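Hi support team,

I'm filing this because I wasn't sure whether my run with iron/sulfur cluster finished correctly. The job status page said complete, but I'd like someone to confirm that the output block is well-formed before I use it downstream. Pasting the exact inputs I used:
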Amino acid sequence: MLQLGSLPDRLAKARFETDSTSHITVNQGAAKAAKAGPLLVRICPAGVYSLQDDGSIGVLHAACLECGTCLAVAPPGVLEWHYPAGGMGVAFRQG
Amino acid sequence: MDFDVIVVGAGIAGCVTAYRLAKAGHSVVVVERGAEVGAKNLSGGVLYCRVMDKVFPGFADQAPVERRITRNYLGFLNPDSLVGIDYHDDRLGKPVNAVSVLRAKLDPWLAEQAEAAGAVVMPGFKVDSLLSEGGKFTGIKAGDDELTAHVVVLADGINSFLARDAGLRTKEPLKHLAVGVKSVIGLPRQTIEDRFGLAGDQGAAYAIVGDCTAGAGGGGFLYTNQESISIGVVVRLDDLVGKGLSSSELHDRFVLHPQIQPLLAGGELLEYGCHLVAEGGKAMVHDLARPGLVVVGDAAGLTLNTGLTVRGMDLAAASGIAAADAIDDALQDGNFGQAAMDGYVARLDQSFAGKDMATYAKAPAFLENPRLFNDYGPLLANVLRGFYNLDGAPREHIIPVFRAALKESGLGITRLARDGLAGVKAL
Ligand SMILES: Cc1cc2nc3c(=O)[nH]c(=O)nc-3n(C[C@H](O)[C@H](O)[C@H](O)COP(=O)(O)OP(=O)(O)OC[C@H]3O[C@@H](n4cnc5c(N)ncnc54)[C@H](O)[C@@H]3O)c2cc1C
Ligand code: SF4
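And here is everything the job wrote out:
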């Protein structure tokens, strides 16, 4: 049977040039008010978002595949998201 | 003026636009945010490639394409059954009508063609904003660098932050967008050919609805490459949000589905990726031209999902042709005002891309019908089971079998007829 592996294992198949500054910023107050955490966690195909013990949302920006889904579904004011700097971020080998 | 034309984005739309303009003798630069051309791009991807022949004669023989699609499979997937129409036709390969592609291989080739025609390709630069003066767009800003041109072409894909900045687009309604989650599974060439009944460079394309998306709007796809299989799901964002589903779980549900697994057995995961897809059809295509600016490809919302096929790459190329030809006219006249840029929209409307967008204008509404993803698969399987499951009970005539299956599905004959008619009208 085909083994897909965990999300981090899968992501390791693509190349990443990690930007020193994150291209994703969560407004934690707005996210809490809108209860956006679980939504972000389940819609992101790369597992970038996680729920932290203190109720905040963790962001692993280095794993982002840059699809833009989180930005499209996030309630207004919750997310600042832009593309990483030129040449940074994910590089697909297949596409 | 640094260049006649600046193209933002070296995807299919951008490369085709740049190639044609450079070939016509204009000075063109293509600015691409990926470290290499193609690094950011992901598609299904079956490219309906007749349009490419217009730009690059003999495209399928020269370009790094994977396989020539001669087999199309349309399936309804249920938890423990799969009902499909298998259309295998050698005529689809002569002349070649559709090819499977991997964008990290195709896009660099397209950019090389543009470069050979005289365009400058600049990878590794993200355009941050547009420059404008007196109501006309005049160039781009990338970091501290500014470049100016007579015309700027936005070929920056589905998220087009630049079209938003220019005020051409606002936040898209969720039902106009879907997320595609895709894996590329490596398999030996011979295994693929044996497993899918293909000879040589023939290829197969599967489009599947039903259990793969757990009833959410969208579907699964499976396309054969030379030595790999592209497989994944496309799920409409309104349903993904509304039904509380997880995008990576839906991907795994399809890829690991017992009906799909045998097709991938022995394979190895080569890559996992995701990308947004435009699903709004014609309703999404608007505001494509401003003085000194045109919008092409996914940035313009040019994708058609008919349920049978997802098409965006061929429309991206067609919009690139229309844009390049209109800009060529504008450069010759020295006029870059609204009327001159609207020449692009007129050319696009006249092209097969514009006409197909109009023909399939009802497809998005038809594909919003939840019964398509929930009910028709089980109905078909139950009717067929009535025939093939010879369990010792005497057979009934088709009409009672069908009626019983219909009753079990809760659909009703009127609804069935209405959906059927809507389907015919949409396609
Ligand atoms: C899962 C999935 C399956 C699909 N299946 C098919 C299929 O089978 N057949 C088909 O025809 N279509 C398919 N499509 C649609 C198709 O992939 C797109 O329509 C097509 O890629 C659009 O091409 P484009 O050139 O307009 O945009 P893109 O290919 O997205 O190119 C945009 C380019 O712009 C660059 N860019 C973006 N912003 C900036 C910036 N600010 N500065 C510099 N560069 C920038 C990007 O890096 C990228 O190179 C599918 C899409 C997905 C996601
Ligand atoms: S852009 Fe896509 S991959 Fe990146 S965090 Fe958002 S949803 Fe996840």
